[in-house]
Design goal:
There is one protein chain. The chain is mainly α and 240 residues long. Helices cover 76% and strands 2% of the residues. The protein contains nine helices and two strands, in the order αααββαααααα. The chain has a two-stranded antiparallel sheet with strand order 1-2. Helix 1 packs across helix 8, helix 2 packs antiparallel against helix 6 and helix 6 packs antiparallel against helix 9. It is globular, with a radius of gyration of 18 Å.
Length: 240
């Protein structure tokens, strides 16, 4: 019993550390680097919003959907690369600095299960059910394995850009708040408000992880785990 309690306490402490710690965004970064980041971020935000809207304007199962979504991932990755440097980040575990692999995956699984429970509730509300089902048609109308693979790539690309380039570009100007708001606005370019709602929770959690760990690894792993659960578990719940 004592061992279980100790492990539970350690797990909670790890979760708190992964989400609530605060680290400086850009310690000692030159103004020229910050300025370059901000220019790159503005330009690629526009491109990204356009390709997101195009991808979800395509018909489910249409091959052009895959082209647009891969192009969207490329936009985020190139934007992040041009705004370098980016950092993976670390957490403190039992007195040692470690890469936040388990915490990132754990938070993603927990968030994914939260959405599954929420899905069981909102599927009983026809207007919301229809909006969510419309999104999942893209997963079920085409090759599921390909859709999941592309979604995972896009999730990683989004984190590199939004919790990497954008977050760093904001510097001391409330990066958790504003990076999340911008992420929501860009996601709403899809035209589906349910994606915007998902972006609120996912964006906020990933931004908190970015602040706590000082890097993009934990947000990337959280996004990957969340995406896998959402695409594999939710479509059957909505009869898609």
């Amino acid at each position: 019993m004592t061992t279980m309690t100790t492990r539970a306490t350690e797990g909670w402490d790890q979760l708190r550390t992964a989400l609530l710690d605060r680290r400086p965004t850009n310690p000692d970064e030159a103004r020229s680097v910050v300025r370059r980041r901000r220019i790159v971020v503005i330009v690629f935000l526009v491109f990204g919003a356009v390709f997101l809207a195009l991808s979800l304007s395509a018909k489910p199962g249409d091959s052009i959907f895959y082209v647009y979504t891969l192009a969207l991932a490329a936009v985020w990755v190139v934007g992040a690369a041009l705004s370098r440097p980016l950092h993976l980040g670390r957490v403190t575990w039992r007195g040692h600095k470690r890469r936040p692999v388990l915490t990132g995956l754990g938070v993603g699984i927990g968030l994914g299960l939260f959405f599954v429970v929420g899905g069981l509730v909102v599927r009983e509300i026809p207007p919301i059910r229809d909006l969510i089902a419309g999104v999942f048609e893209y997963a079920t109308a085409g090759n599921l394995a390909l859709v999941v693979a592309i979604a995972l790539v896009n999730g990683i690309a989004e984190e590199l850009f939004f919790r990497g380039a954008l977050y760093s570009a904001l510097g001391k100007y409330y990066p958790v708040v504003y990076s999340t708001i911008i992420y929501i606005i860009v996601t709403l370019a899809s035209g589906n408000p349910m994606l915007g709602f998902a972006a609120i929770l996912l964006g906020l959690v990933c931004a908190l992880e970015r602040r706590a760990t000082g890097g993009v690894l934990a947000p990337m792993l959280t996004h990957v785990a969340w995406t896998a659960i959402i695409l594999l578990a939710l479509p059957p719940l909505f009869g898609v």
